[in-house]
Amino acid sequence: MLRWFFLVSLAMLVISVSASADEWKKDYRPSGKPVIRVDANDADIRVNDWERKDIEARVITEGYKIGPDAVRVTESQSGNQVTLEVHTPQFGLVLHRHSVQVE
Q1: Per-residue pLDDT tens over the stretch 68-79
Q2: Which end of the chain, C or N, has fewer beta carbons within 10 A?
Q3: Model-wide pTM > 0.70
Q4: Which H helix or E strand runs over 101?
Q5: What are the percentages of helix, strand and coil residues in the chain, rounded to 5?
Q6: By the 8 A CB rule, do 100 and 53 touch?
């Protein structure tokens, strides 16, 4: 009975840790008509337009952290062009839900 309780507790701990989420965001003010380029190896990408020159970029992860050893976000701006690169780590077997959204 004690062993069963320990296994269930361990499973719940693993699930709660793996369900972590992270967010990265940045606003850009291009000099002219905005142009955005997004490169992602495994992400849902959503682009919404509006009547402003501003660009709001956001990366939301579930089951991943954002950082050098996890989901890497690289960004740059040159004049009116904004480039956003989002790359997820390549793991073999993943036992929990994970996702990356770029907005």
Answers
A1: 888 999 999 999
A2: N
A3: yes
A4: strand 99-102
A5: 15, 45, 40
A6: no
